[in-house]
Structure formats: structure tokens, C-alpha cells
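Minutes, structural biology subgroup

Action item carried over from last meeting: produce the C-alpha cell record for HECT-type E3 ubiquitin transferase (Gnathostoma spinigerum). EB confirmed the sequence was re-checked against the source entry. Recorded below for completeness.
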Amino acid sequence: MVKWRIERGVKDQGRELVNGLHEVIDETQLNIFDSEQLELLLSGTTEIDMNDWQSNTEYKGGYNAEHVCILWFWDIVHEINNAERLKLLQFVTGTSSIPHEGFKALRGSNGPRKFTIEKWGQRECLPRAHTCFNRLDLPPYPSQQIMKAKLLMAINETSAYGIE
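Output recorded by EB:
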């Protein structure tokens, strides 16, 4: 019974999925990829290149690459582990993977859209994200320790979308 459910229970759906894929990508072109390469092309990677991320980030609202809050932000991102970085990426972009071309290929709701950090809010506020725009609204916290605590709270304790 289990074997039937696993193998035959989704046979029709699997066949239709493959047929649909072949409508978009020619079967001969698809055969040159192994499963890992195909997954990378379709889903991106979860290995974060910090230099790529930083060089493909835009700043708004008074922030720039040399602003003390931005320097703290990148120190924190370098400090946290890859799983937390992926949570941060998920929080801001809505996805926990990076396109295989890197951060320069991030897309928003209207096409290509770089990761953006904008100065917003009061010191008491948590950071907020706009996933359609790959934008993190980051308040100007008075210290790196407060920023880290607020950032980690935002990425670990929130999971809902809101409408303003």
C-alpha cells in the first residue's frame, strides 16, 4: 500500500509536471543537467557570499555604506550563522535562497530589485520588511547590541504579513 502511494499515487501528477517542464525547456537541453544542477538553476543556492551581498545592496533614507548603523548591520550579519542569515534573507525577500547568478539577480514583484536597507522608524521599533521590494526598514539604533537583539527578534519571532 505504501509503495503504491509513493510510486503510483502521484504518477499522473508527476507525468503532467514533466510534460509541463518540457513545454518550457526542451528535453535535450534538460538532459545535460544532473539533479543538483537543475535544483540550483530552479531554486538558487543557500550558500551566502557576503561580499556579493554587500556589493549588491542599496541604501536609502539617509543610510549609506559608511553609516555607523550599516557598519553594525554588516558586522552582525557576518557574526551570525548561515541559518540565521537565511532567516534574515527570508524575512526581507520572502525567499531563503539566492539566485544562482548571485544577489545582483534578486527579483522583486516588478522585476529585478536589489536588497535594500532604508532608514526608518524609532529606536523602540523592530526592523520591518517589504518582501515585494526586497527592502529592510532599519531604525537607527543607539548601539550594535540593541540592533542585534531587535534584528534577531524580528527574524526569529515574526512570520506574518501585514497590510499598512
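Discussion: Residues 2-32 form one domain.
Next step: EB to file the record with the rest of the batch.
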